[in-house]
Amino acid sequence: MASEELAEIEGQISDIFRALSNGFQKLEKIKEPNRQSRQLEELTDKMRECKRLIKEFDRELKETDYKNDPDTSKMLNEKKQSMIKELNSYVALKKQYASQNKRVDVFEGPGEGFAEENVLLASNMSNQQLMDHGNRMMDETDQAIDRAKKVVLDTIDVGTETAAALKAQTEQMSRIVNELDSIHFSLKRASQLVKEIGRQVATDRCIMALLFLIVMGVIAIIIVKIVNPNNKDIRDIPGLAPPAPARKLLWSSD
């Protein structure tokens, strides 16, 4: 006979199935997306609990299998398979509502899926199925490792190229800084030269103005001497011959 623990677990699973059935009927009447999402999360929690109870049912069944007759063991195994099948039907229904709601499926995160081959307990798999599943997982792991290696190699190449580009840019920046220093020095030297040229031009202008005044003074004295040669107030200019005295013509009368 089945133990009391199995009967208790079966009762809990039946209660969860009834709650899931009522929950999905309620979900059909909900139109608001946010409320649908909350309802799906509640149903997801119930399905997780149901999965845990099915595993516990299977474990208890193994522990008490030697006490049961063949017919009872067969009946309990069929009941377990029936519970798994019913749970999978609710999982499929949940997927349908989740896809219609276009929201992230929190129920099927990594390692949390309730697909049929994941809900199927390892104890029900044959050795060949376990080996095939293990080989498939190893192949997927190898492919993931190969992809990771490729990403690492690509990252190293990109890092090398980036380092080379940064080095070239650093050298270019150093050359630009040196050229800017040279330009700054040239501008400073040119500014000094402009100031010196400006001072020299100012000095030359003063000398030219002074020479102009001297020449104009000499010209003025010359003009005055020519116009009024008997003016004693003006001294003779050195190097300039004094004006010739006026000549008187004598007329002789016959």
Automatic annotation (TrEMBL):
Q: From the Swiss-Prot or TrEMBL record, what is one GO molecular function term?
A: SNARE binding
List all membrane-crossing ranges.
207-227
Under the heading SMART domains, the entry gives: t_SNARE (SM00397)
Gene3D superfamilies of this UniProt entry? Answer: 1.20.5.110
Under Pfam families, the record lists: Sec20
Keywords from the UniProt entry: Coiled coil, Membrane, Protein transport, Transmembrane, Transmembrane helix, Transport
Task: Please name the GO terms of the biological process aspect recorded for this protein, alphabetically.
Answer: protein transport; vesicle fusion
Kindly list the GO CC terms recorded for this protein. endoplasmic reticulum membrane; ER to Golgi transport vesicle membrane; Golgi apparatus; late endosome membrane; SNARE complex
Q: Which SUPFAM superfamilies match?
A: SNARE fusion complex (SSF58038)
Q: Does the keyword Transmembrane helix apply?
A: yes
Q: Which PROSITE patterns match?
A: T_SNARE
| Cellular compartment(s) | Membrane
Q: Where in this chain does the record put each T-SNARE coiled-coil homology domain? A: 135-197
Kindly give the membrane topology term recorded for this protein.
Answer: Single-pass type IV membrane protein
Q: Which InterPro entries match?
A: NPSN/SNAP25-like_N_SNARE, Sec20_C, T_SNARE_dom
- So what family is this one in? Belongs to the novel plant SNARE family.
- Which PANTHER family does the protein's record reference? NOVEL PLANT SNARE 11, VESICLE TRANSPORT V-SNARE PROTEIN VTI1-RELATED
- What name has this protein been given in UniProt? Novel plant SNARE 11
Source organism (scientific name): Sesamum indicum (Oriental sesame)
Name of the coding gene: LOC105155987
